[in-house]
């Protein structure tokens, strides 16, 4: 009797261990999150998960430039970066990225990314004014640290096997590297679409003090951005402020945070301009663009042609949106003055 | 450490088993027990290392009380002090915040107090030790060594969520030399029960749990039908969660050659609330019966006092489940229905004494039909009561219950369906092009619901089928596939569905 049970225990353990080793080996060999190696020739890879795939891309892809930032940066076409600037760029964006998100991935870029010529960093002032240490979403730590033990969560993972290994092979379809994380193909633009999802502020709050976000911004910059700017002097940091629609500013005006946000932008710009390896582009005062809601899919997200246009401007020395020690105060003051006098309701008709 | 975690399955459990049986193999029985206690403390400390001292202090103090009482001097006083101390600790960690918040609300005193965090499993190990003290005071417990006592309290399969074991069923097992050797039969059944419990938890309860979280978070936008579904999903989640946990605990017990008491016996098959509580959290009901209900007088002091005692026990049971008004009301609802059911049973006896009625009700078909209706009604009551149990406030509970009974709504929200579209099932639906048929998006949810209801209402539970069959090769292969399926389901891939900066 005991022998019979013993035999079945042996069969059970043998089968379980065999299948687990098989599953783990499959994941390690195909490695759809690129934790151990680059994509293999002849296999198909889906790249659509920023939280899980960015660390592997940062670790194991060949690149000399990276794009960082929020959903404002995901529609960049990295092929254009190669064409216009000769850069081999990877996109490491996180939707709703906070400074800490950038820090998490910059750590890996600096540690394992080789020689980095340029880092393109989109800054969303709203997130830089939030408490330091926040991330947009909980990150799967096991993909970001160096521990091999917790890789078990990756190696024995049903979603990885089904969604990221079997499904792409079944569909025989890989995500083109220059298009990763694109969403513009599925999100139409147009004034009607924007207005359908927009709610104008119900009341206008009193304007908050200009230094409302000062401390958080200071801490966020000091902890998560400046250490890289300072420790990577050979790398050019191209920092840019993306062009939200006029409705974003209407919301900030309604919340009473408009002046505090613009003061926050000025604070960041002043800090960054003191570094020789930083150049700054300010696209938010492209008034013609931001007031035409046909350029947007909602109150902040612009059409992908704007990403292409920004790429073009990054490649030009004489870009009208480049900020310097000489012009930055005037640009920001004019922007604030214009916004404070703006009749936002005009754009809702 | 959770049973459903990689560290438990791949590191802790194998290490505990190998260490324990190796020491026993070399006849180092005390070493084996010591090792098991140490592993259990590691298991407990894995959650929050700073709570280890609470558990250790609690064990030491209770053991000292045990020794003092065995000297047969000041037994009542020692027992009373010991029980008060246990209840005091439980009160401080579990109810202090709740009481202070309510005092603050009543007196508007603006109290400021540091939030006290609840140590895991405190309700269980406190009750277990109270029972031990009471039985020592009654003289039904012999002197135990500290090691045996510590193992009785900390034995990890039952430490954090029960069953609430009693000394007479555990201590003899820990001392039994026959249980120091591995029995292949027990190991096989232990693995089998553990894997099936794990499957209930990982493949069913956790899937329902996601839908439940969404439903309770968005209860204000749900119509009647979808509120009912939320409550139903919660009822199923709780079933598979608790049942899965109890199975895993029993399975692990078997691996260590220890038989833990049955704690869960198909409770949703109950025909009334009294039967329900004989099947749901059986060891808690046993504790309350022995140590609260009977000392209060039980059924010995007339029917009115019996009803009052029953009601009181359920109120205590309610507040034991959590510090909040919702839990108390939940307990009162169960207490109220228990009293009514007892009244009905008494009244029914008199009613049935009229001959013709009795003959009618004795008919098999009528009996079966009535039982079916009773099971459904008991199940519906439990669903409704769980809305109160799970809600954050009585206001929310009231809103949801009102919504549920409004019978509004004709279609299931698509948001719900997404939680059930697990890749393995959803790909099958897509491969067969079933999603193109009308209602295609709902198929996965329907599969989960049907499978769950069949398992609950139509299948024998694990305890009933335990050791009743011999292992076959097909069953073992299925079991191994299920085990692998569970393990690869422990971790998912985080995704987010919307973008916003």
Task: Describe what you observe in this structure.
The complex is a heterodimer of chains A (349) and B (501). With 349 residues, chain A is α/β, with parallel strands linked by helices. Chain A has one domain (62-145, 177-348): 3-Layer(aba) Sandwich (Rossmann fold), CATH 3.40.50.1110. Chain A is 47% helix and 7% strand. Chain A has 14 helices and 6 strands. Chain A has helices at 2-30, 50-60, 78-85, 99-112, 125-128, 152-155, 158-171, 191-196, 214-231, 246-255, 258-273, 287-290, 304-314, 328-341; strands at residues 65-68, 89-91, 118-122, 236-241, 278-282, 322-323. Chain A has a 6-stranded mixed sheet, sandwiched between helices. In chain A, β1 (65-68), α3 and β2 (89-91) form a beta-alpha-beta unit. The longest helix of chain A is centred in the N-terminal third of the chain and has 29 residues, at 2-30. The model of chain A has no long low-confidence stretch (mean pLDDT 93). Chain B is globular and about 70 Å long. The two termini of chain B are 35 Å apart. With 501 residues, chain B is mostly helical. Chain B is 71% helix and 0% strand. Chain B has a domain at 6-180. The model of chain B is unreliable at 496-501 (pLDDT under 50). Chains A and B meet through α1, α6 and α7 of A and α9, α19 and α22 of B.
């Amino acid at each position: 009797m005991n022998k019979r049970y013993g035999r079945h225990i042996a069969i059970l353990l043998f089968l379980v261990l065999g299948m687990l080793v098989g599953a783990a080996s499959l994941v390690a060999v195909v490695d759809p999150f690129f934790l151990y190696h680059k994509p293999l020739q002849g296999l198909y890879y889906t790249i659509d998960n920023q939280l899980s795939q960015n660390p592997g891309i940062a670790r194991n892809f060949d690149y000399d430039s990276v794009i960082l930032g929020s959903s404002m940066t995901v529609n960049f076409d990295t092929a254009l970066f190669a064409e216009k600037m000769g850069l081999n760029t990877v996109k490491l964006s996180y939707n709703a990225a906070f400074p800490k998100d950038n820090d998490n991935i910059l750590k890996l870029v600096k540690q394992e990314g080789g020689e980095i010529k340029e880092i393109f960093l989109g800054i969303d002032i709203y997130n830089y004014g939030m408490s330091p240490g926040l991330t947009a979403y909980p990150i799967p730590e096991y993909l970001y640290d160096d521990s091999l033990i917790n890789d078990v969560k990756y190696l024995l993972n049903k979603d990885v096997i089904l969604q990221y290994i079997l499904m792409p092979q079944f569909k025989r379809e890989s995500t083109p590297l220059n298009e990763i994380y694109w969403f513009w193909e599925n999100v139409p633009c147009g004034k009607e679409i924007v207005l359908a999802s927009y709610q104008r502020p119900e009341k206008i709050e009193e304007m908050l003090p200009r230094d409302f976000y000062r401390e958080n911004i200071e801490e966020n910059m000091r902890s998560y951005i400046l250490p890289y700017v300072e420790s990577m002097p050979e790398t050019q940091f191209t920092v840019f402020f993306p062009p939200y629609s006029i409705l974003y500013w209407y919301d900030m005006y309604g919340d009473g945070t408009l002046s505090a946000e613009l003061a926050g932008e000025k604070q960041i710009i002043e800090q960054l301009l003191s570094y020789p390896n930083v150049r700054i582009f300010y696209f938010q005062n492209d008034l013609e663009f931001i007031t035409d809601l046909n350029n947007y899919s909602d109150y902040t997200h612009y059409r992908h042609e704007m990403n292409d246009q920004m790429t073009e401007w990054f490649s030009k020395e004489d870009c009208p949106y480049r900020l310097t020690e000489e012009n930055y105060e005037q640009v920001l003051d004019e922007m604030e003055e214009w916004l404070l006098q703006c009749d936002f309701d005009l754009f809702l008709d | 450490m959770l049973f459903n975690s990689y560290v438990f399955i791949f590191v802790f459990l194998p290490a505990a088993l190998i260490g324990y049986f190796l020491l026993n193999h070399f006849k180092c029985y005390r070493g084996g027990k010591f090792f098991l206690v140490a592993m259990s403390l590691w298991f407990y400390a894995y959650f929050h290392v700073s709570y280890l001292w609470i558990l250790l202090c609690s064990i030491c103090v209770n053991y000292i009380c045990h020794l003092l009482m065995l000297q047969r001097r000041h037994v009542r006083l020692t027992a009373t002090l010991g029980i008060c101390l246990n209840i005091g600790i439980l009160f401080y960690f579990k109810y202090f915040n709740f009481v202070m918040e309510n005092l603050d609300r009543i007196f508007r005193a603006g109290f400021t107090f540091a939030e006290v965090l609840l140590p895991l499993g405190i309700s269980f190990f406190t009750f277990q030790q109270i029972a031990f003290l009471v039985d020592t005071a009654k003289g039904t417990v012999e002197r135990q060594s500290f090691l045996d006592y510590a193992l009785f309290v900390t034995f990890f399969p039952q430490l954090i969520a029960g069953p609430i074991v009693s000394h007479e069923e555990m201590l003899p097992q820990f001392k039994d030399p026959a249980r120091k050797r591995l029995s292949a039969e027990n190991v096989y059944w232990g693995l089998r029960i553990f894997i099936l419990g794990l499957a209930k938890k990982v493949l069913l309860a956790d899937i329902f749990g996601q839908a439940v979280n969404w439903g309770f978070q968005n209860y204000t936008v749900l119509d009647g039908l979808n509120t009912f579904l939320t409550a139903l999903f919660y009822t199923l989640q709780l079933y598979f969660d608790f049942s899965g946990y109890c199975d895993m605990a029993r399975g692990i017990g078997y691996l260590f050659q220890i038989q833990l008491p049955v704690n869960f016996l198909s409770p949703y098959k109950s025909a009334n609330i009294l039967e329900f509580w004989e099947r749901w959290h059986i060891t808690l009901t046993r504790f309350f019966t022995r140590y609260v209900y009977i000392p209060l007088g039980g059924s010995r002091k007339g029917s009115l006092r019996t009803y009052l005692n029953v009601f009181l026990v359920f109120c205590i049971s309610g507040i034991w489940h959590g510090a909040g008004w919702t839990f108390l009301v939940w307990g009162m609802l169960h207490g109220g229905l228990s009293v009514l059911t007892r009244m009905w049973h008494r009244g029914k006896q008199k009613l049935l004494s009229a001959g013709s009625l009795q003959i009618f009700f004795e008919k098999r078909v009528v009996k079966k039909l009535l039982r079916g209706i009773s099971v459904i009604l008991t199940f519906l009551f439990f669903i409704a009561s769980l809305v109160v149990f799970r809600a954050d406030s009585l206001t929310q509970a009231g809103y949801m219950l009102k919504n549920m009974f409004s019978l509004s709504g004709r279609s299931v929200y698509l948001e719900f369906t997404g939680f059930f579209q697990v890749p393995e099932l959803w790909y099958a639906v897509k491969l067969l092009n079933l999603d193109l048929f009308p209602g295609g998006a709902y198929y996965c949810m329907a599969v989960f619901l049907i499978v769950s209801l069949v398992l609950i209402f139509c299948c024998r539970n694990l305890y009933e089928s335990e050791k009743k069959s011999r292992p076959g090769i097909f069953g073992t292969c299925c079991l191994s596939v299920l085990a692998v399926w569970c393990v690869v389901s422990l971790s998912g891939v985080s995704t987010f569905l919307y973008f916003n900066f």
